[in-house]
Amino acid sequence: MNDWTTSHDRVLAQRKAEGWMFLIEAARDLRTTGAIAPSGKALARALTDPVRAQAPRPLAVLEAGAGTGTVTRTLIPELPRASRLDIVEANPRFASRLRHLVTTHPHLAPAQVNVNQTYVEQLDTDQRYDVIVSGLPLTNFTPVQVERIMARYMELLHPGGTLTYFAYLGTRKARALTASRAEARRHAAVDEIMATYQRTYATGRWTVWANVPPAYVWHLQRPLVSAEHSEPQSVEARR
Questions:
Q1: For the Methyltransferase domain, which residue ranges apply (predicted)?
Q2: Angle between helices 181-201 and 171-178 (to 10 degrees)
Q3: What is the pTM of this model?
Q4: Residues 179, 133: Cα–Cα separation, whole Å
Q5: In this structure, are strands 60-64 and 157-168 parallel, antiparallel, or unpaired?
Q6: Is residue 209 within 8 Å of residue 177, measured between CB atoms?
Q7: Pairing between strand 215-221 and 202-208?
Q8: How large is the average pLDDT for residues 166-193?
């Protein structure tokens, strides 16, 4: 057995363990877990594209709903020198795993990152971020929760900053077929809230077919000035 085989087997074992951990935590509480499976590599890369787009200047980055750290592991090597990464994860078991990841990751000094065990809408900070990477599938939440989360995201962004998040394909149709009427109405109300944000702030949407399940990745940008006076500008438009 060579080093590549040993490393490959270790990665496969890690992915299997993370998959089971997600299923267990989802059964406990979907609000703190957010998903039933870790994000795939293609989804993680699409979510972290805004970080690569704004390099090499130092960035302030927030990752919300980091789970077991699948996206975090993709994000860390992309951070420009002297950047700051704040991670928010409400699930205490995931937060503990993330702290271990941070302290053992070869590409990141511990002083560059903070892991906060809390909900993002309750994050106590004066920091503003160039990029927010959200791992929270918002269709799991109530409309009130979604409004609070999205308002907090926009508050935490620098003017011109980018929020990147994902949504699984086909969830509304699936829930319409299998869920109660109340659940279907909740899902539709959340979709309408997100559609309003997309119409106002979206700079792009991509479909990640390689993820399981497939997902859309959205990029939303906080305007450089009040949305009442100017349309949101893309990253390219600001350069």
A1: 61-161
A2: 160
A3: 0.80
A4: 29
A5: unpaired
A6: no
A7: antiparallel
A8: 81
